[in-house]
TrEMBL record:
Subcellular location as annotated: Vacuole membrane
Record keyword Repeat present: no
Alphabetized SUPFAM superfamilies for the sequence: AtpF-like (SSF159468)
Principal localisation: membrane
Function: Subunit of the V1 complex of vacuolar(H+)-ATPase (V-ATPase), a multisubunit enzyme composed of a peripheral complex (V1) that hydrolyzes ATP and a membrane integral complex (V0) that translocates protons. V-ATPase is responsible for acidifying and maintaining the pH of intracellular compartments.
Protein name according to UniProt: V-type proton ATPase subunit F
Record text on subunit structure and interactions: V-ATPase is a heteromultimeric enzyme made up of two complexes: the ATP-hydrolytic V1 complex and the proton translocation V0 complex. V-ATPase is a heteromultimeric enzyme composed of a peripheral catalytic V1 complex (components A to H) attached to an integral membrane V0 proton pore complex (components: a, c, c', c'', d, e, f and VOA1).
Keywords of the record: Hydrogen ion transport, Ion transport, Membrane, Transport, Vacuole
Matches recorded under Gene3D superfamilies: ATPase, V1 complex, subunit F
Topology relative to the membrane: Peripheral membrane protein
GO molecular function (one): proton-transporting ATPase activity, rotational mechanism
Organism in which the protein naturally occurs: Lipomyces starkeyi NRRL Y-11557
Family: Belongs to the V-ATPase F subunit family.
Cellular component GO terms, alphabetical: fungal-type vacuole membrane; vacuolar proton-transporting V-type ATPase, V1 domain
Amino acid sequence: MSQTAKDRSFIAVIGDEDSVTGLLLAGVGHLTEDKRKNFLVVDNKSTVEDIENAFDEFTSARKDIAVLLINQHIAEKIRYKLDGYTNAFPAVLEIPSKDHPYDPEKDSVLRRVRRLFGE
């Protein structure tokens, strides 16, 4: 394992209030020394720019994030970023939310896998 991968020890979350709250209760919350959170609660006041900035921070700026979980209905708002993201770390996983079921047809990772296998 490379030094870069060893340093990645946190899960980041971009999601609705219920998803983020549940994951924080499970223990994924973290604040850095300079008070940067590893989560973003997206509500009706959140802009696409807010979501893009959080995605960029968790996937590029932060070198301590191993996995980024994002609600699929929120991922749809920045689909072009997810489709263009190819790095192994952090792994980006789309998850369902209470009000929005998971649709495998929309998942960037599963679409890439299908292309690899010629489906």
